[in-house]
Amino acid sequence: MVVILVYVDDLLITGSSSQMIQEAKATLHKNFKMKDLGSLKYFLGIKVLKSKEGILLNQRKYALQLISEVGLSGAKVASTPLEFNQKLTSVEYDQHIGNTTDSADTELEDITAYQRLIGKLLYLTITRHDICFSVQVLSQFMQHPKTSHWEAALRIVKYVKNSPGLGVLLKRETGPLELTG
């Protein structure tokens, strides 16, 4: 079996045997102008490392770029993605219960920076499953983010800074390839 993944003008080809992969590549070369870049190292910002244990996927370069973009290169790292027992509420909830006690936790004037940061963190969750829950929680506040949401998002970046090369290991299995959903 040969699997071909197409993304715009990039192709990934893999399969159960080298011979089948070579045959598929030869067929594609006959019909299309293409350049073989060899073994996969990066794809869509995801680094691919092969070892005896399996394939490690990480976004170290992307994570370091994100840390730099938000100006946290010199910041202390966080040990957890969210503060323990932190209560994040929406503007609507605060209005509903009449909560006006925390005047420092106001709605952000420019929400695009928050939305952009959450989008980048969502992309990082491809290989950073340890931040999935925290990013999902913060993504609920995209329409009306508050100062507390922005600070919580920055905390996730500080947490990522602790180990930017962390990723997902796809363990090598012996036996037939199975696709489950």
List keywords for this structure.
two-stranded antiparallel sheet, 38% helix, 2 domains, alpha+beta, RVT_2, 6 helices, 181 residues, Putative ovule protein
Helix/strand layout:
Layout: E1 2-7, E2 10-15, H1 18-31, E3 42-43, E4 46-50, E5 54-58, H2 60-69, H3 91-97, H4 111-124, H5 132-139, H6 147-162, E6 167-171
Antiparallel strand pairs: 1-2, 3-4, 4-5, 5-6
Helix pairs in contact: 2-6, 4-5, 4-6
Protein name: Putative ovule protein
Domain Reverse transcriptase Ty1/copia-type: 2-82
Pfam families: RVT_2 (PF07727)
Continuous helix count: 6
How would you write the strand order of the largest sheet?
A: 3-4-5-6
Percent range for β-strand residues? 15-25%
Look at the helices and sheets and give the structural class.
alpha+beta
Shape: elongated
Count of beta strands: 6
Describe the structure.
By secondary structure, the protein is α+β, with helices and mostly antiparallel strands. Helices cover 38% and strands 16% of the residues. It has two domains: 2-57, no CATH class; 60-162, no CATH class. It is built from six helices and six strands, in the order E-E-H-E-E-E-H-H-H-H-H-E. It is elongated, with a radius of gyration of 21 Å. The chain starts with a strand and ends in a 10-residue tail after the last strand. The model has no long low-confidence stretch (mean pLDDT 90).
